[in-house]
Amino acid sequence: MAILSEEAVKAGTIRGSGGLAPTAQSTRVRLSSGQIKVTDGPFTEAKEVIGGYAEFELKSKEDAIKGTVRFMELHKKHWPGWEGETEIRQIFGPEDIAQHLKELSGAAAR
Question: I need a labelling partner for 67 at 20 to 30 A (CA). Which of 16, 33, 34, 99 fits?
Fold first, then answer.
């Protein structure tokens, strides 16, 4: 992990990263059937838990995939038996959200 972080800092591509506290220290706020419910952890039913995040400024989705494959290869090499998943998602800025809403309203009008 340190190697990847150091490389990303040198390349100027990392914007932020961090680990997340265990679900025992978490609180969930859920909206369901018109009601808002606040529940403190731990969440024993959790099948999928996000353990950390990293935010990068990359030129393409292909660069993101290559970096993620390398990240997972390092886990495979240095943490035998570990299983997990990494999700790649674009972060929308205000201009992206405005465009997305415009596209949605156009589709709803059709």
Answer: 99
* pLDDT tier for residue 62 given thresholds of 50, 70 and 90: very high
Residues 61 and 92: their CA atoms lie apart, in Å, by 14
33-45 residue pLDDT tens: 888 888 888 877 6
Kindly tell me the burial class for residue 67, based on how many C-beta atoms sit within 10 Å of its own C-beta (0-12, 13-18, 19 or more).
buried
The bridge status of strand 35-40 relative to strand 27-32 is antiparallel
Question: What is the Cα–Cα distance from 98 to 94, expressed in whole angstroms?
Answer: 6
Contact (CB, 8 A) for 83 and 16: no
